[in-house]
Amino acid sequence: MNKDIVRIHNLSFQYRPNEPYVLTDINLTIKEREWITIVGHNGSGKSSLAKFLNALFIPDEDGEVYIYGLNTKERQNQGKVRKLVAMVFQNPDNQLVAPTVEDDVAFGLENTGVPREEMIERVKESIKIMGLEGFEKQEPHRLSGGQKQRVAIAGVIAMKPKVVVLDEATSMLDPVGRKEVMEYIRRVHNDVNMTVIMITHDLNEALFSDRIIVMKEGKILKDAPPIEVLRDEELLKKSLLKPTFEFEVQSKLKEKGINLFEISPQITNQKELVDALCTWKQKM
Amino acid sequence: MLDHIIIGQYVPGHSKVHRLDPRAKLICLMLFMVFLFVSRHPLSIGVALLIAVLAFGLANVPLTFYLRGMRFIAIIIIFTFLLHLFMTKEGPVLFTTPIVTIYLGGVLEGVLVGVRLLLLVIMASLLTLTTTPVDLTDGMESLMLPLKKVGMPTHELAFMISIALRFIPTLLEEAMKIIKAQMARGANFTQGSIWKRVKAFVPVLVPLFVQSLNRAEDLAIAMESRGYEGGEGRTKFRILYWKRMDTIALVILTLYSMTAIFTRFLM
Ligand SMILES: Nc1ncnc2c1ncn2[C@@H]1O[C@H](COP(=O)(O)OP(=O)(O)O)[C@@H](O)[C@H]1O
Ligand SMILES: [Mg+2]
C-alpha cells in the first residue's frame, strides 16, 4: 500500500479568536500518488485548509498536520515541509516574481541554495515538462493566462516536491487556458509521479481524480470517488455545487422516467452519454 | 500605446555594445561622466567625441531611438549654450549689439558645455538602449556588493528594483482596464480644466492602490511558499561573464580619464 503523505488530525481553525471557525474538526489522509480534488463553494475553507498543507498555517493545540510523518508544529520541520508540498495559486499575475520565464522557474531553487549547475539542469527539465521550450527568455506579462500558470507549475516542480497543491489554479483562466493547464497537471501526475491536490469549484475538473472531497462551512461533507459524488444530487444541492452537464442530463431524464444509469453506470463525458442514449434508443 | 512604455528603452540586438557586461558598461559610463566634466582641452574633448562615435557606431541602434524624448534635452542644451554665450565676458569681442556683446570666450564656453551635455545624454541613452533592465539591476547589485560589508542590504535593494520592473507592465495594464471601466461610466480624462482632469484620475488611483496591496499580499505568500527567506544562503541563476571586450572597454575609458586629467591639470 502507498504511504500516507498527508495526515490531518482533528484540525480546527479560526482566523481570530471570537470569530466563527473556518475549519472544524477536519480529518483527512492522502496517500502518495493520489489525485485529490477538493470542491466547495466560496468561503467553505478550501484555501485555509490548503495553507496548512505546507506549513504556511500551523495548527494550534488540538489539531495536527503530518506531512510525510513530519509534524508541522515543530519548527525544524517547517522548511522541509515547504519543500515537500508546493503550492500554485489562483491569480497568475500575483505569483510570478522574476523578469523572465526561466528566472522564475529558477526562483525557488535559488531560494533553497541549489548549486548553479544543478539549477540549470532542473530549470531546463521543468520547462520541458511544462511544454515551455522557446519561452525561456519571455517576460511574464507577454504570456497568456494558461502559459503563466504553466510557468508557475514549472517553478514548483523544479523544486521536486512530493505534493503539488493547486488552489483554484484554473479559475481565472478562459476555457482554453483551463483545458491546457489541466492537460499539464495530468502530465505532472502521470509522468512525474507527483501527488496532486487540486482545489476547484468546477466539478468537470474533478473527474480525473481518485477522490473528491466536498467541503461546506469548514467541514468535510463527503470524501468519495468522483462517480459517487457526482451522482449524489442531494449532496451537490446542499453544498451549492453545479453538477456537470452529463449528470444534469441524466437526472433530468430520470425525472422523465428514463434511467440511463441502468444502461451504463459510468457516464462521465459526452461520448459516454451519447453512447448510453443510443443504447437506450435501440432498446425501445 | 502601452507597448512603448512596457519595452522601455531597450532595443534588442547583438552588437558589441549590447554584449558588454553590464558592470563594464556602468563603470565606463561613470568614468565617462566624471571625466567629461574635467575635460576642457580640445584633445580630451576630441577623445571623448571619438569614444562616443565609436560606441554609437558599434551599438548599431537606429538614430530615431536616441531622438525619442530628446526634445526636452535639446531645450536644455540650447538654453545652457545661450546662457554661456551671453554671460561669459572673456577674450576678444566678436560683435556688439545695443543689447548684448558677444565675446569669443562665450562662444567657446557655450560650445564646450553644449557638447559635454550632448555626449553625456548620448552615452547615458546608449546604456539604457543596449542593456535590459534585468541586466542593469544585476550589474548594480554586483557593483554594490562591497557595500554589503558596511550593512547595506544590497540583495534586497536589487530584488526590490527587479520586482518593481516585473510589475510595471502589469500595473499599467490594470490602470488601462480601470480607466476604460471609468470611461464606460462616463468619466472624462481628456476634457476640462487641468484640475478637473486630475480629479478624474482619483477614481482610477484608488482601486489601483487597493489592488496593488492585495497583489503584494498574494505575492508575499507565493514567495514564502517557494522558500524565499531573504538573501542569506541564496544561490544565483543568472551570472555575469566578464569577457575580453569588457576589459578593452575599461582600458579605453581609463586612457581617456588619464588624458582628461593630464590635459586639465598638468599641461
Ligand atoms: N485572512 C483572513 N482573515 C480573516 N478571515 C479570512 C481570511 N481569509 C479567509 N477568511 C475567511 O475564512 C473563510 C474561508 O475562506 P477560504 O479558506 O478562503 O475559503 P475558500 O478558499 O473555500 O473560498 C471565509 O469565510 C473567509 O471570509
Ligand atoms: Mg480560495
UniProtKB/TrEMBL annotation, chain A:
It is a peripheral membrane protein. Keywords: ATP-binding, Cell membrane, Membrane, Nucleotide-binding, Translocase, Transport. This is Energy-coupling factor transporter ATPase. InterPro entries: AAA+_ATPase, ABC_transporter-like_ATP-bd, ABC_transporter-like_CS, ABC_transpr_CbiO/EcfA_su, ECF_ABC_transporter_ATP-bd, EcfA_1. Its main location: membrane. Belongs to the ABC transporter superfamily. NCBIfam families: ECF_ATPase_1, PRK13648.1. Residues 6-242 form the ABC transporter domain. SMART domains: AAA. It comes from Evansella tamaricis. It is found in: Cell membrane.
From TrEMBL, chain B:
The keyword Transport applies. The chain crosses the membrane at residues 26-59, 65-87, 99-130, 247-266. Keywords: Cell membrane, Membrane, Transmembrane, Transmembrane helix, Transport. CDD domains: EcfT. Transmembrane (T) component of an energy-coupling factor (ECF) ABC-transporter complex. Unlike classic ABC transporters this ECF transporter provides the energy necessary to transport a number of different substrates. Forms a stable energy-coupling factor (ECF) transporter complex composed of 2 membrane-embedded substrate-binding proteins (S component), 2 ATP-binding proteins (A component) and 2 transmembrane proteins (T component). This is Energy-coupling factor transporter transmembrane protein EcfT. It comes from Evansella tamaricis.
